[in-house]
TrEMBL record:
SMART domains: S_TKc. Gene3D superfamilies: Phosphorylase Kinase, domain 1, Transferase(Phosphotransferase) domain 1. InterPro entries: Kinase-like_dom_sf, MAPK, Prot_kinase_dom, Protein_kinase_ATP_BS, Ser/Thr_kinase_AS. SUPFAM superfamilies: Protein kinase-like (PK-like). PANTHER family: MITOGEN-ACTIVATED PROTEIN KINASE. This is Protein kinase domain-containing protein. Pfam families: Pkinase. It comes from the Eukaryota.
Amino acid sequence: MTTYRELGAVGAGTYGTVSKCLDMTNGQVVAVKKLRNTMNGRRGASYHRYCEMMVREICLLRALNDDHVVSMIETFRHNGHVHMVFPLMRYNLYRHLELNGGSLTVDDTKECIYQVLKGLNYIHGQNVVHRDIKPENILLSANGVIKICDFGVSRMFCSDRTLDLSIEMGTVWYQAPEMLMESTKYDATVDIWSVGILITELISKMPLVAEDTIISQLYGITKILGSDNCDLTVVDEYLRKHGFSLNLEANHAPLSQSYIVSKTAMALRKVYAWWPGYLMEIITYCLQFNPNNRKNAAQLLEMKFFTAGTFLLRFNKELKIMLDNDNARYQ
């Protein structure tokens, strides 16, 4: 690794370590991710799955190009390890929350989610579903620009959901109900659910539900959102197999989409009573059990949470300056 001189450790995880390094060719400080060449000292099935994730992430990062997606400078192999080089970010959103007492104001949340949705709108437009949107996978650049990262579990998807996707991806707290119920027929709407959960965490310090297991997570979500949802009949059948029940009435009948959306809004209002109406509206359309009832990223960006008042006029000017400063820094 003669091109890069290590300056210090940034962090370590299941799949490797990240170091702060100096690029000796241009004097730029970068982040170098060194990927493990074994899993638990072995090269069995888990290692081969890890290799698939690594290759998939590298291929996707080479193809994706957006202001709100982390950019990969290059990859190289050294001493049997694959290394990925990125512009050095300030820290991730999880660390940002820690430094701000565990939560953000509604206005700061709006600026953050606006950028996350812009990034997802681009990613989904490339027929890619991220599958692991959470604070740890959202970075802040030196100038405060939001960048979505960690595409190891991301996949291409079909808009008609005809392509089978794997289950048990992502982090349980942020997984959509259809993923928790082991469906393989899903699409980019699972990321929209994660955005809704992310909003609840940014403002209230905790996700809507934060359980240890898939079943208890699903049960907790359904108990909060209520049983006035036609999709819960299927959920109840799934939960019964694992010793849980929603105790739905025998005459539980399908309900209209507008009724379901309004009942979801009422259920969420009981949890977040003080939140302003435009904020409640956007999380209501993110946290719909039926993925067909969720709005996509482009539609969410057009909601009054962002369009009311002077937010877009002000923040888009600020964002352009932040992006210009980033581009000058990372050239």
